[in-house]
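> call design_seq(struct)
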């Protein structure tokens, strides 16, 4: 299958390129500014995807069997910092890709987020009412609506959780950020009452490859790991896995009540119900231990790690 992949340099995009290549697919990857090598790509192109014409011209030239959208402004703070850019990438781009998918009769796999929910009434089923508490979540809701309006018969959207795994640059995923703080002598402040249900970017990518191959699955679904844990528990498990001491890798535990204004823009509990996807898919749902086993010491922090 020929797959056009946006965001090929990102945490999920790079994992998707490798997973799709392993399964024998030909992946043409679009990157923005990254110059990092991306294993698994048959071809790499640079394009500014804030301009809809850029991706349309490439898609019409490539004529893919599937389009996989991993490009985004993927963090709430970054959306707040530049709402217009975030709107272009998080809403306008997926809608353009959906129109192209419809036009080309191509499969479309899009990514949304757990942050479409407000975190007050977990666990969330796929049909639970969405109620985002930040701009990122609102843009993801809008992207879902527009994607499935434009390409109902071709599109599948996975709402993804907080992601673990190893990124290309070693600075993007959950454990990589903790390591960056510890290596720089910063003490991360982590919520004991904020619950997330992570999976690795690699596991999410495997599910996305499977969905490219199973075009009968259309609509919006959830994908996440097997366990819902607090931010504090996640950091403790990561610290223990790498045999780091509390002195070398300290954390400060905080609670949502400490700063209600900040908490109002952060969903408390984003536990997701994985039905019906968990019963349909061959890709397994990962335990947190299975995720930990895949993590490597982030390259930018290796020197610090071997010192402590
Ligand atoms: N990471 C998470 O924990 C998480 C959780 C839930 C859902 N998601 C969703 O999963 C998807 C993938 O997220 P991610 O974490 O892999 O994102 P990421 O690591 O931040 O990567 C974003 C990608 O978008 C590309 N991009 C950004 N601006 C661009 C532009 N103007 N033109 C072309 N490409 C551009 C980047 O390219 P360059 O770097 O080359 O510029 C990069 O490849 C997103 O939809 C995100 O919302 C992520």
């Amino acid at each position: 299958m020929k797959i056009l992949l946006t965001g090929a340099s990102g945490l999920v995009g790079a994992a998707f390129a490798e997973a799709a290549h392993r399964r024998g697919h030909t992946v043409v990857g679009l990157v923005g500014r990254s110059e990092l090598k991306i294993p698994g790509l048959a071809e790499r192109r640079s394009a500014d995807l804030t301009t809809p014409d850029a991706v349309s011209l490439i898609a019409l030239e490539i004529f893919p069997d599937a389009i996989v959208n991993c490009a985004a402004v993927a963090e709430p703070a970054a959306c707040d910092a530049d709402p217009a850019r975030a709107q272009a990438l998080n809403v306008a781009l997926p809608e353009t890709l959906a129109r192209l998918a419809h036009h080309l009769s191509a499969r479309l796999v899009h990514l949304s987020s757990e942050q479409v929910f407000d975190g007050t009434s977990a666990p969330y089923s796929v049909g639970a009412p969405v109620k985002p508490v930040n701009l990122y979540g609102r843009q993801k809701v809008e992207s879902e609506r527009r994607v499935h309006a434009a390409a109902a018969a071709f599109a599948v959207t996975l709402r993804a959780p907080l992601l673990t795994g190893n990124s290309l640059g070693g600075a993007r995923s959950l454990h990589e950020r903790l390591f960056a703080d510890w290596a720089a002598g910063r003490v991360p402040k982590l919520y004991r009452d904020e619950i997330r249900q992570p999976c690795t970017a690699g596991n999410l990518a495997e599910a996305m490859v499977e969905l490219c191959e199973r075009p009968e699955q259309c609509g919006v679904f959830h994908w996440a790991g097997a366990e819902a844990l607090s931010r504090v528990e996640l950091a403790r498990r990561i610290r223990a896995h790498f045999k780091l001491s509390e002195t070398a890798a300290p954390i400060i535990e905080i609670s949502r009540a400490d700063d209600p204004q900040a908490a109002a823009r952060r969903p408390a509990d984003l536990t997701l119900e994985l039905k019906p996807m968990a019963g349909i898919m061959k890709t397994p749902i990962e335990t947190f231990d299975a995720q930990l086993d895949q993590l490597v010491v982030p390259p930018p922090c290796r020197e610090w790690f071997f010192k402590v």
